[in-house]
Specification:
The structure is a homodimer. The first copy, chain A, is of the alpha+beta class and about 180 residues long. Chain A is about 30% helix and about 30% strand. In chain A, strands 1-2-3-4-5-6 form a six-stranded mixed beta sheet.
Amino acid sequence: MFWKNFFKDTYLLSKACKDTNQGKKDPSLLTRLFYKGKKIKIFLSNHKIFNWQDLEFLCHSVGWECPPFKKIQIGIANSFMVVSLFQEVLGTLKLIGFARVTSDKVFNAIIWDLAVHPEFQGKGLGKILIYQIIQQLRREDIITIALFADSQVTKFYLKLGFIQDPEDIKGMFFYSNSDEYSSYI
Amino acid sequence: MFWKNFFKDTYLLSKACKDTNQGKKDPSLLTRLFYKGKKIKIFLSNHKIFNWQDLEFLCHSVGWECPPFKKIQIGIANSFMVVSLFQEVLGTLKLIGFARVTSDKVFNAIIWDLAVHPEFQGKGLGKILIYQIIQQLRREDIITIALFADSQVTKFYLKLGFIQDPEDIKGMFFYSNSDEYSSYI
């Protein structure tokens, strides 16, 4: 119901997800939504070039420690896909959402660092970012899409069709800077 | 105990893991082990160029369906790291172990497709492959190393220092070719 009302005079969500980024200019108008009593434009981009302050602002807004800019540059440059959402403010675009993907470009892809500015959370923008990624990966014939989700957000991904530990496959981590590292190597 | 006996007249495992691939030629002699009553040489390589039949042979030996060569080529070309083990047979090298890594080259890396030919399983070669990857990623300052493990092999990775679902982080998958796909998008 929420979606029906939310998008009734703009795009349908499914249409918004399907129509963007197929030969359109980048950034492209994705949708319009109400924010602080006004209807604002939300733009979608696959560009890998960011304003450092924009990224830092978004990082801090969701409580993440922002890595050094040089590291972020390397991480983004070596991401297979970057999807960002921008709010139009007085003719300029302000970053409000972000996610990126690493991939071998053929078999599998991992989604990392999904972030939506708190003022825009609960408006379906995280869902749009994920579906944009899925659509774009599908066009590249990459079928297996994975991510690592904090326990607070597994429900969000389950609703989007993600499966937790399918066929009992477990996500496992090795932290090579941990104190215990030397006892293993 | 097993390790102590196994490596007593060759390398110590820890030494084998630490010494290779630091300015040495590729493929480099990793260790020697007993196989069918003879002491054979095991070589390690980071090359991305493979004999297709070797890879197919290894795939089938571990019960994997082998993807088309063209797809494997793309997957390997876009892997950040490939680590292979070879047995020396009459002066030629025969592929007996393989693993690859995708990465953003700065923050995180995912290990995929660890395979050791069944005749060489239980001899610590899987462990060597994983430690080689960890060592090489560590040299690149990549601290977070992850993988998705079948339930049958989680114990193997736990012994190597991997943590399952750390801080309740869950591995989640989306299969965009599944029947249910259209109901989500």
